[in-house]
Amino acid sequence: MTLVAAAIVLWAAGWMLNVRLATGPVAETRAAQLAVPIIFGLTLLGIWELVVRGLDVPGVILPAPSVITATFAAQIDILWQDFVQTFVKGALSGFAMGCVAAFAVAILADRTDFLRRGILPVGNFMAALPIVGTAPILVMWFGFDWQSKAAVVVVMVFFPMLVNTVAGLQDTAAMQRDLMRTYGASYVQTLIKLRLPAAMPFIFNGLKISTTLALIGAIVAEFFGSPIMGVGFRISTSVGQLALDMVWAEIVVAALAGTLFYGAVAAIEKRVTFWHPSHRR
Amino acid sequence: MSDTAPIAGQGAGVGRSGRVALFARAAGAGLAPVLTVVAALIVFWYLACIPMNAAQSVRDAARADIAVSPESPAERRVMGGLALALANPGVAIDGAYTQDRARLPAPHQVATELWNSTAAIAPTSPRSLIYHGWVTLSATGLGFLIGTGLGILLAVGIVHSRVMDMSVMPWAIVSQTIPIIAIAPMIIVVLYSIGIQGLVPKAVISAYLSFFPVIVGMVKGLRSPDAMQLDLLATYGASKSETFWKLRLPASMPYLFASLKIGFAAALIGAIVGELPTGATAGLGARLLAGSYYGQTVQIWSALFAAAILAALCVGLIGVIERALLAKMGMRR
């Protein structure tokens, strides 16, 4: 019980510290803005550890963070192998193929107005559907290895990417387009010099949505059959063996991969669309 | 809006019919391209059936002693579907649309299966898609309600408390970059081991997936009143709660509904995925998994379409409620 009490004290202390930081004179500094969420996260981890130990929660229900860390360190080579299989082979290659394909179709749809007005509603509709469900079909078609995972990812990221790109290519003012016309610019010139740059915020929005979808697609597809490695495979077999520390270690891998992937895309976005109001300082 | 009624009364017919005509024209102009694209997709689907199912149809034909072009099965095995279909056009077209376990079932086969498992069967039967759809929908709905409620509460907290804004918001964003699906099997096992099973574990996953769009949308919406409006309420001497109920909450409604639509789609995915790893026997996810085990492609496709129709209906329903509510609040755009 003392540990649980310690958890409550820790929570109160962390929260008080955050209140001081967030409302005090340092609140506007960058350090404080980084420190507050980090303190919050560390407090949560500390409470988790203390409560699990204090209440003697069995490891098959919720392992403590320290146990998960130990498993992570001990199984690093298996985790790395799963990471390569699911993330590098499945999610990344599918992400690249899906986004390039969607981009090409978007340009095509942008050229002909009729096609755009047909594709946009259908794409919007498809983007809202549970496309993960196609996983069993695609696993049947492309086999158990990473190719089928990449195929699922391609289908999943295609529609959000398409809808965003098409919407982005429309996002220029009539005045800007007229200006290009008075310069005698061709379609390709207008596309490269005006409309693609203007579409970049939308395109990156699609890319950022797709990063999450890509990981989800790759992991869920492994529930329908996979070689004996991969994050999804390891999660479903470890759950069966009640090895929850391993499951959590895989979740940490997935979380790290997902966060870094998203962060990388967001960083590129910042470099590319520095002119956009949301990035101006 | 009622005070403008007498003025509108006189020319109401004109305005109405003009608006209806405009709407009809817009719908007509919008419908033709959409129908064209959908028709093109269906045609492509029918054509794709021929090479996709060619291997099976040629094998069936060879078994029935019909001459097929590469005589030996070994030779046929290394050929792609398209090459096989080109070598035996007649056989491939004949067999493309009649197989029970086609690699790619034709649209009409899926439609027949959908009809047989919804309209032609009692909704309580375990073979009825309505039954499975209901199982998934109830988990989705419960999770959606929990997630939406939680998201709105957190958003209210974030808007009113600077500490929560600075500490919770970054983690809410990080939580979305990790595939929550990864946690799905574990949530189900953990809840099972403490005696909770059935609807609730799936609803928890749905709630987790639907809460993020709501929190982001609501924070944006609650912050959407501009300084002028807030100042006005301040000059009226409005309290914090009055500002919330009379300005912030109404202003957030369009944002809320936009997020509800995304949130529902996410919740449905959560419920379906929640049915996958645990060997659930009911629900659309369970149908998908069973179909995948037994190679029942038509069953997979019909479950997939049922999920799609379910999503479309529910998102459409949210859209109808949105339009009615916003119109009532005078915010119709």
Question: How would you describe the overall organization of this protein?
Answer:
The complex is a heterodimer of chains A (281) and B (333). With 281 residues, chain A is mainly α. Chain A is built from 11 helices and no strands. The longest helix of chain A is centred in the first third of the chain and has 36 residues, at 76-111. Chain B has 333 residues and is mostly helical. Chain B contains 14 helices and no strands. Chain B is elongated and about 90 Å long. The model of chain B is unreliable at 1-23 (pLDDT under 50). The chains are: A mainly alpha (281), B mainly alpha (333). At the A-B interface, helix 1, helix 2, helix 5, helix 6 and helix 9 of A face helix 1, helix 8, helix 9, helix 12 and helix 13 of B.
What does the secondary structure layout of this molecule look like, with pairings?
The complex is a heterodimer of chains A (281) and B (333).
Chain A: H1 2-23, H2 30-54, H3 65-74, H4 76-111, H5 113-127, H6 135-142, H7 146-169, H8 174-182, H9 187-222, H10 231-240, H11 244-272
Helix pairs in contact in A: 1-2, 3-11, 4-5, 4-7, 4-9, 4-11, 5-7, 6-7, 7-9, 9-11, 10-11
Chain B: H1 5-52, H2 54-63, H3 73-77, H4 81-87, H5 89-96, H6 107-118, H7 129-160, H8 162-177, H9 184-193, H10 199-222, H11 227-235, H12 240-274, H13 284-294, H14 297-328
Helix pairs in contact in B: 1-5, 2-5, 4-5, 6-14, 7-8, 7-10, 7-12, 7-13, 9-10, 10-12, 12-14, 13-14
